[in-house]
Specification:
- By secondary structure, the chain is mainly α.
- Helices cover about 50% and strands about 5% of the residues.
- The chain has 9 helices and 2 strands.
- It has a two-stranded antiparallel sheet.
């Protein structure tokens, strides 16, 4: 008899199949110029994430990204529905690259883990400055800031004033170790030079 994890995986596979059919029938809804290889070393389906992003459904895409990270991190993460920072090392390079490329492609290089990594490094890896730049905190008073309330206070939109790097979200309320491990994952070791090239061709607003 299938366990809960395997049953959930079957449901997701069926959603992916249905999603692929919808995509093939959606004439002209998404630009054909966006072609991202959905590579996975773990046999994970990324079609649902692609479709959410292509449709501009940013909140649903963020939710799907969290689910995918749990699936990639292993059965324990799937059961608890969140990832331990120590499990990030088991996520394959190809899979994190696919997630990042999808976010970057459909947001025109505004969202994605590699974008967040560049911002984080630009502020000397200061989490306080990083949270401020990506808009995960808001002013509490003249001197202090507080985390935005999820999900209502976050910005599910590509247009300004949504800051660069605002998505995907990573829960930092339990600490920054998980986000640290994601941004330092080997999947992004070769993205720094790529981001430098993007900086020459795209005006990024780091405020």
């Amino acid at each position: 008899m299938p366990n809960a994890a395997s049953s959930e995986k079957i449901v997701i596979q069926r959603q992916c199949q249905a999603s692929a059919i919808r995509m093939s029938m959606r004439a002209g809804a998404v630009s054909n110029s966006v072609q991202i290889a959905l590579e996975s070393e773990a046999g994970v389906c990324y079609e649902l994430l692609r479709d959410r992003l292509a449709a501009g459904e940013w909140e649903l895409a963020d939710e799907e990204t969290r689910r995918l990270l749990c699936e990639l991190a292993g059965e324990g993460a799937v059961k608890r529905k969140w990832v331990y920072f120590s499990e990030v090392q088991f996520i394959p390079v190809a899979d994190l690259k696919t997630i990042d490329r999808l976010w970057r492609a459909y947001s025109k290089n505004k969202f994605g883990y590699s974008i967040q990594r560049r911002i984080w490094k630009a502020v000397d890896k200061s989490w306080t400055a990083f949270f401020r730049k990506v808009g995960w905190t808001r002013p509490l008073d003249e001197k202090n800031e507080t985390y935005r309330s999820f999900p209502l206070e976050f910005m599910w939109d590509l247009a300004d004033p949504t800051p660069e790097g605002h998505l995907p979200l990573t829960n930092a309320l339990r600490g920054t170790q998980l986000l640290d491990k994601i941004l330092c994952h080997p999947a992004f070791d070769d993205t720094d030079g790529e981001n430098e090239l993007n900086l020459r061709s795209t005006a990024f607003n780091l405020f």
